[in-house]
Amino acid sequence: MKLTKQINKNIFREYDIRGCYPKDINEDISYTIGRAYGSYLRQLGKIDCIVGRDNRYSSDNLADTFIAGVTESGVHVLDLGLVTTPMYYYACYKKNIDCGCMITASHNPKDDNGYKISFGEYQNAKGQEILDFYDFLMRGEFATGDGIHSRMNIKDSYISYLLSSIEIKRPLKVIVDCGNGTTSPFINDVFAPLSQISEVLLYAESNPEFPHHHPDPSVDENMRVLQNAVIELKADIGVAYDGDGDRLGVVDDKGRLLRMDEVMALFVRDLSSIEGAKFLYDVKCGMTLTHEIEKCGVEGVMVRTGNSYTKALTKELNCIMGGEYSGHVYFRDKFLGFDSGIYASLRVLELLSKSDVPLSEMVDSLEHFSSTPELKFPCSDETKFEVIEKVKDYVRGKNYSFLEIDGIRVPYPNAWVSIRASNTGPNITMRIEASSKEQLESLQKEFEGLLHSFLESES
Asked: What's the CA gap between 13 and 126, in Å, rounded?
């Protein structure tokens, strides 16, 4: 392995460093990123960090070369080995080391990989922090030293912490879909101590080929097997996790795929009696959640999409809970405030067990609106932000009011449209919600046609 400056700047994204292995990220690039990361920490006066890796084929090599770069810069590394991203977060708190790196591409295709990096305060780097780090790397002014590489098994401590605040009050049957991702080696140990839970595990063997479906519960097609299993086995609930275990998907007892803003609305109802309760949500969340927040008489805060942003702002704004439409949820009432798909699923089970009402009835008691799923439109990283600016120009020309928290969100009476550039891949995403199917179809026709015309002119 050797230092290299042959690095594609586009892998330095809004929330992390991510690209295709070995095209965009290889062992030399990983070593160079490690040298830069360790040197950057040295400038900040830090000499310790934590590193974990997911179950992708390339993760072992990328972690080893990254660690080599960090230690050769004089920074000590506590190596967790194979862990979920939430296990890595927990280890940082447990060891009082507020910086580190998780080698993962989360829910991206199997050949991708990347780095969720933190420079301090237990928060992932984001936005300008990542661009500044890229500039530092390209200058090549790296420190040298003899950092120590040691190892730690965090599993038992983490699972004990997960379960310490959970109380299941009645028997429940749950179907759990790990998607062959990084939650697979740990899920048995999580559910074994829960005597009130009868679980059926799907695809709980670690396999980075992801042979059954991609481990991304935000994509409807990936949830079909779980939906069918819940119905066939007469389960109370189905839950699914993404590739690195920080996101959750939920299916109710009728086999219906729940949107995460619906699940968050149930949490708001459950937690709203806590004094000063405040809830954070991203721009892709809809009126089911915002109306429930209003009904409960608590404060809600809409922020931009992006795990690194929403997690940091949940803490900064002192919210009791925060979350994203994509499945990240952060609890701060009796948890450390990081996103864990497994912990969020345990909280759903706990909530469900406090009542004899089925999950489907709980969800049906919420207000509902016509909505699209998150629609994705392929668009290159080089042009996607230009397309968003064209959408803004169109909206200005129509004299529509709009928000620019993240991309563009256009509010209407009892409806809204959100269009934004994805920060994890070459896509533009759109979501629309309305009080009637007719209004939804009208808005979708307008803005989908608009996007197609802009994308065709870019190609």
From this structure: 8
∠ at Cα 55 (51, 60), nearest 5°? 55
Q: Which helix (H) or strand (E) holds 100?
A: strand 100-103
- 84 backbone φψ class: left, alpha, beta (φ>0; ψ -120 to 50): beta
| Cα–Cα distance, 79 to 74 (Å, whole number) | 15
Distance (Å, whole) CA 249 – CA 2: 41
CB atoms within 10 A of CB 141: 10
**Alpha-carbon torsion (186, 331, 225, 196), positive or negative:** positive
Are 431 and 372 a contacting pair, CB within 8 Å? yes
Percent of the chain with pLDDT over 90: 95
Catalytic residue among 30, 106, 353, 371: 106
Residues 6+ positions from 290 with CB-CB distance below 8 Å: 281, 300, 302
Question: Catalytic residue at 355?
Answer: no
What letter does residue 205 receive in the DSSP assignment?
Answer: S
What SS3 state is found at 261?
A: helix
Q: What is the pTM of this model?
A: 0.94
Distance, CA of 25 to CA of 422 (rounded, Å): 20
Q: For residue 459, what are the CA distances in angstroms to 378, 419, 448, 452, 453?
A: 11, 19, 16, 11, 10
* 298 confidence band (pLDDT: 50, 70, 90): very high
Q: In Å, how far from its chain's centre is CA 217?
A: 11
- DSSP SS3 for 52: strand
What is the dihedral angle through the alpha carbons of 326, 245, 86, 276, rounded to the nearest 10 degrees? Answer: 40
Spatial separation of the C-alpha atoms in residues 290 and 213, rounded to whole Å: 32
Is the pLDDT confidence value at 225 over 80? yes
CA gyration radius, the chain: 22
Residue by residue, DSSP assigns 416-445 as: EEEEEE-SSSSEEEEEEEESSHHHHHHHHH
